[in-house]
């Protein structure tokens, strides 16, 4: 009887630990509800809308972190892909399918560049993506200044979709539209991406290989897994996801500013991954947590706005939260081992 209670108590604590990202989100959400004086369904659904782009980027970042690498170029890549996707939209007389296909392919190609340098050449991912972060942002800004004005929507230093094209309203309504019940279309796309990649990581050989590479690359090699290929693939997939996020960005905003689009998104994506419980050392964590991590950061923004705090303090608060979460990740296992040894010694 006592053993059954111990097991049930242990399983409950284990479940709480595995899904702690849900508790973190609920705690932040309750604070938001309290400071805003109650929430409507529409306000809740807006969380999905505002989390869509960073959430999709964070899914790719989560894959990369699970292999033990990191990508600092995601924000600049978003600006790069979004800007040139606007050019394609304007050049193809507003072809939405071609614009989406181009965004996915260009994102995957940028990811391939990172992946080959990290996975095949075996350069440190931090250095590689720091360099490509500078390259993508610089190219995006340079081309915006030197392309013919009609290609960038006759804007000034900003890529703009031409509002005279027949499909302009269609893509803008897609980016800002809602389904019956109030769910934003872009929020639904985020949920579908999460579902697809949770399945990919939990129910396929690819997912097992990703965790194996992140847990122990040497053991993965001995097991016959091509570590360079896997490390390259996750960067390519992450790049394609950034392409999708870039398409959603221009659909929502009808423009892309090469100087500000995606600024600090690498930090927000890493924060969403860490808040979601994925270990930065690789091999541990659930991709489902990325959804709650991204939404947690969105709600933090809304709490700051509701409290009428200075927006300049926003990143300070997020930075402190990020440090605390990583500290918990590091100290948790150490404290567990220490107390575990103490209990073992006492029982003897």
From TrEMBL:
Q: Where in the cell is it found?
A: Cell membrane
Keywords attached to this entry: Cell inner membrane, Cell membrane, Membrane, Transmembrane, Transmembrane helix, Transport
Membrane topology classification: Multi-pass membrane protein
Kindly list the GO molecular function terms attached to this UniProt entry. Answer: transmembrane transporter activity
Membrane-crossing ranges are 21-41, 47-65, 72-89, 95-113, 182-201, 222-252, 264-280, 317-335
Q: Which InterPro entries match?
A: ABC_transp_permease (IPR001851)
Main localisation: membrane
A GO term from the CC aspect: plasma membrane
Q: What is this protein called?
A: Autoinducer 2 import system permease protein LsrD
Query: Which organism was this protein described from?
Result: Olsenella porci
